[in-house]
Amino acid sequence: MAKNTYKQDEILEEPFDIRHLLRASSYIKKYQKRMIIAILLSSLGGAFGYIAPMITQHALDVAIPDKNFRLLFSLVIALLALYTGSIIFVTIRSKIMVEVSQNIIYDIRKDLFEHLQKLPFQYYDDRPHGKILIRVVNYVNSVSDMLSNGLINIVLESFNLLFIVIFMFLVDVQLALVVLCGVPILTVFMIWIKNKQRKAWQAVSNKNSNLNAYLQENIVGARITQIFAREDENAQIFQDLSQDCRRTWNTAVRYSNLVWPGIDAISVCVRAAIFLFGLVIFGEGNKSLGTIVAISSYASFFWQPIMNLGNIFNNFINNIAYLERIFETMDEPVTVSDKENAKEMPTIRGEVTFDHVAFSYDETKKILKDVSFTVKPGESVALVGPTGAGKSTIVNLISRFYNVDSGRVLIDGQDISEVTIHSLRSQMGIMMQDSFIFSGTIGDNIRYGKLTASEDEIRKASRIVCADDFISRMPEGYDTEVRERGSMLSQGQKQLISFARTLLSDPSILILDEATSSIDVQTEKALQTGLNAMLQGRTSFIIAHRLSTIRGCDRIMYIDDGGIMETGSHEELMAKKGYYYKLYTAQLEEVHKTA
Ligand SMILES: Nc1ncnc2c1ncn2[C@@H]1O[C@H](COP(=O)(O)OP(=O)(O)OP(=O)(O)O)[C@@H](O)[C@H]1O
C-alpha cells in the first residue's frame, strides 16, 4: 500500500493485468469441480426456461386454433415441469455457489491475515489501519464474489445469450435478424454507461476507504480528541469525508438508475419493430401470432444477459484493482524473517553482544552509528539518555524487530539473524510502555505468554509483581472480563498485569521499556521487591525516565548521538560528573521543586 493518509485516495484505476487473474485462479482451483456442476445446473435451468416461449408458440398456433385441449393440457404440464426443473437447478446452483464463495473468502482472508501478522512494525507505523481493514474485509468480499459467481456468470450469461439467439432463429430467422439490429445501439449505450458507472463506483469505494481510515483513527484516538477538545474540528472533517461518500454514491446511483430505463427504451423499440415487421412489412398473415409473441418474449430476454455481461465486466475491472491491492499486501516483504537454514536458538544463558552495530529506520538518518558492548548473563543494564536518542531502538534490535544495517547482534555468541525468530523471541520477555490488554478475562491476559499455565502459577506471578491485591478485589477476581485494550483498568493496573504476563513466560532475557512509567511511586516501591526477584538470574535491559528506578542496576549506559556516551554503575557515573550526572541531578532538582 502506498504510504498514505485518510486524505489520499487509493489507486483503483489500474490497467487490466491478466497476471492478477492467473494468480487468483489458485484460489478457485480447489473448487473447480463444484463450479463445473454449478455451471451445468445453471445452463440446464436456463435452457429449460428458454424452451417455454416455443411451447407458448405451439399452444397459440396449434393447440388453441385446433381446439386440441389434450395437446393444450400437455403443453401446460410441460411448461410447469420446465419451470419447476429450472427453479430446482437454480436453487441447487445458488447453494453450491454460496459455499464456494464463502470458502474463497476464508482462504484469501487466512493468507492475508497470516501475512499481516508477520509484517514488521514499520508496516503498521506507516499506514492508516482503517485502509488495511478495508482490504481484509470489503475488498476480499468483493473479489471472492468475482472469482466465484462472476466467473460462473460469464459462462452462464454467454450460454444464455447463445440459447436465446438459437431459439430465436429456430422460431423465425427474419424476425430474429430484426432483434439483432438493436445490438449496435445497445452496445454504444452500454460502453458509455458502463464506463461512467465503473468510475463512479471506484470513487465510492475510495471515499469509503478514506472514511473508514479516519473513523478507525478517531476511535483509537478518542481520548486525545477529548483531551484537546478537538470534537468540532474532527466532526467537520468527518462530515466532509461523509459528504464525499454521499456525493460519489449519489453520482454512482444516478448512473445505475439510468441503465434499465435506457435498456427498456431500446427493448420497446425492438419489440415495436418486431410487430411492425411481423405484421406489416413482411406481409400480413406471413408471420403467425404465436411466432410474433414467441420472438417478442425472446427479445425481452435478450437484453438481460448482455446487461449482466456488462455488469460483470465492470465488476471485473474494479475487482482486478482490489485484487492488486490484496496481492500488494500479501507481497509486502517480511523484512524480518527466518533465513533459509535458520537454526533453533538453544536455551539462552543471557550474554548479549552488540558488535559494531549500525542502524537506521530509513535512508535519511542513522539512529545507531557504531555501537559495541557486551552484557554478561544475569547482568541488569539500564539505558538512559535524552528522548529520541535510540534507547528503544537498541532493545528492539535485541528482539530482532528490525534487522541491523551492519554489524551483528549476538546472544551467547550466536548471531541472532541466523536463528529462528520464534525460538529467539519465545525466550524473551518484552514489556513496553503501552501494555496491551486483550479482550477476555484478566487470567487469560496473564496466561497469554504461557497458555499451559495453571491458576496457581498465574496467582503466584501476580503476587510477585503486586498485582494480586487489586485483581482479587475485582468483582470476579481473575475471571473478571476486561474489555478490548483493557479500557476498564488504569494504566498502572495494565502495567502490573503485563508484568505478571511477562514473569509467567519465564524469559531468559527481560526487556522493560518504560514498563513502570504509569505505576505510582508507592506501588513501584512495593513492586521493586518483585522486580528484583524477576531480574534474578536473567539478563535485563531497562529503560526508565524515572532515574530513581534504575539506580540499582549493575550497569547504566548513557545513549546519545547514535552511540554509547558513558557506561558504568550509578556510583561510577555520578563520580565522573558527566552526562548521567547532569541528567540525574537535573531530575533531582525537578523533584525537589515540585515536592
Ligand atoms: N518506526 C520508526 N520509523 C522511523 N523512525 C523512527 C521509528 N521509531 C523511532 N524512530 C526514530 O528513531 C529515533 C530513536 O527512537 P527511539 O524510540 O529509539 O528513541 P528513545 O531513546 O527510546 O526515545 P524515548 O526516550 O523518547 O522513548 C528517534 O529519532 C525516532 O524519531
Automatic annotation (TrEMBL):
Its membrane topology: Multi-pass membrane protein
GO CC annotations, alphabetized: plasma membrane
Keyword presence, Chloroplast: no
A GO term, aspect molecular function: ATP binding
Keywords: ATP-binding, Membrane, Nucleotide-binding, Transmembrane, Transmembrane helix, Transport
Boundaries of every ABC transmembrane type-1 domain copy: 36-318
Superkingdom per UniProt: Bacteria
Membrane-spanning parts: 35-52, 72-92, 151-169, 175-193, 258-282
Record domain ABC transporter: where: 352-586
Pfam families listed in its UniProt record: ABC_membrane, ABC_tran
UniProt subcellular location: Cell membrane
InterPro entries per the UniProt record, alphabetical: AAA+_ATPase (IPR003593), ABC1_TM_dom (IPR011527), ABC1_TM_sf (IPR036640), ABC_transporter-like_ATP-bd (IPR003439), ABC_transporter-like_CS (IPR017871), P-loop_NTPase (IPR027417), Type_1_exporter (IPR039421)
Major location (coarse): membrane
Protein name as catalogued: ABC transporter ATP-binding protein/permease
Source species of the chain: Fusicatenibacter faecihominis
